[in-house]
Design brief:
The chain starts with a helix and ends with a helix. Helix 7 crosses helix 8. The protein is mainly alpha-helical.
Length: 305
């Protein structure tokens, strides 16, 4: 009886959602403006468009259309997700691909329960319909949030790499300023010398600023806002204040590079301490298990006696 009620409820919910999807909705003016603003590409976002196009080539046609539909729905609702978009831009993944992956993983997790029920039924085991449904819902919720964890971990690792690259970039800019170059020329020359994806992002931002007529420090500030790296935004603010005085800029950049290296060294020491503590806990658990293995026969003989 309970299984029939649950199955009827799910079937009714599916029919209701299907009917709701076919009913034409009247989109308000605020949602249309939000969708237009989300599709509009501001200056300095050429790299994110490039990564979105590169990511769209690697995904299937169905997932691409599904992601575009979900992104359009989020834009109509006015949901912007600025921190999530910054993380996706940093790891080079499109927002549409992210939404399609979340939904498809949730559907796959929900289908595991019914598939398990069918397999157990073929094997001769009979379970209630409620257990696979609740298992499918739990797995759907877990699979739905798995892309968030992956994106957050990759973005944190990318930001650490970006900070390391900024320290090297500041040293290169300081050396170019010592050679007599101006601030814009020193920034461009330093970005062309360095290698890696972080230097590539900085170089693309500077080239885009030259085309659009922005100053290089404005482009660095826009890039810092896009990838959510505070050191890049602070560098943009410092360059905008003292861009006319090369000596002060050189001293400030050197001090910032030293500060970044010290902070990176402190972070590495903290990570090493955490790993040593985890290894110590693992060793203590191993010793406790070995002692339990040694004392188990003695305790068994004493209790048996």
């Amino acid at each position: 009886m309970t299984g029939a009620l649950v199955a009827g409820s799910i079937a009714g919910l599916g029919l209701f959602l299907l009917a709701f999807a076919f009913i034409p909705r009247r989109v308000s003016l605020a949602r249309q403006i939000a969708a237009f603003d989300s599709r509009r590409s501001p200056p300095g976002r050429t790299t994110s468009r490039t990564t979105s196009r590169a990511g769209s080539k690697q995904e299937s046609e169905f997932s691409r259309r599904l992601g575009q539909a979900l992104a359009a729905f989020c834009a109509e609702q006015g949901w912007e997700f600025p921190s999530l978009r910054a993380n996706l831009s940093l790891i080079g993944k499109s927002f549409e691909n992210y939404l399609a992956t979340k939904l498809l993983l949730a559907v796959f997790g929900f289908l595991i329960g019914p598939i398990l029920l069918v397999m157990l039924g073929l094997a001769g085991f009979h379970l209630s319909l409620v257990i696979p449904i609740w298992l499918g819902l739990a797995l759907a919720a877990i699979f739905f949030f798995l892309p968030d964890l992956e994106v957050r971990q990759k973005a944190n690792a990318r930001r650490r790499d970006f900070r390391h690259a900024i320290g090297a970039f500041l040293d290169l800019v300081s050396m170019n300023l010592s050679g007599g170059r101006g601030v814009p020329e020193a920034l461009m020359a330093a970005s062309e010398i360095g290698t890696g994806w972080a230097m590539w992002r900085i170089r693309e931002a500077l080239v885009s600023a030259r085309i659009t007529g922005q100053t290089p420090w404005q482009a660095l500030g826009t890039l810092g806002e896009e990838v959510r790296v505070d050191e890049l935004r602070d560098l943009s603010a410092a360059l905008s204040l003292v861009a006319e005085d090369g000596a002060k800029v050189r001293e400030s950049l050197g001090a910032r590079a030293i500060s970044l290296r010290r902070r990176e060294l402190a972070d590495l020491e903290g990570q090493a301490g955490e790993r040593s503590q985890s290894m110590l806990v693992a060793q203590m658990l191993l010793c406790a298990g070995f002692l339990a293995f040694l004392t188990y026969p003695v305790i068994g003989v004493l209790l048996g006696a």
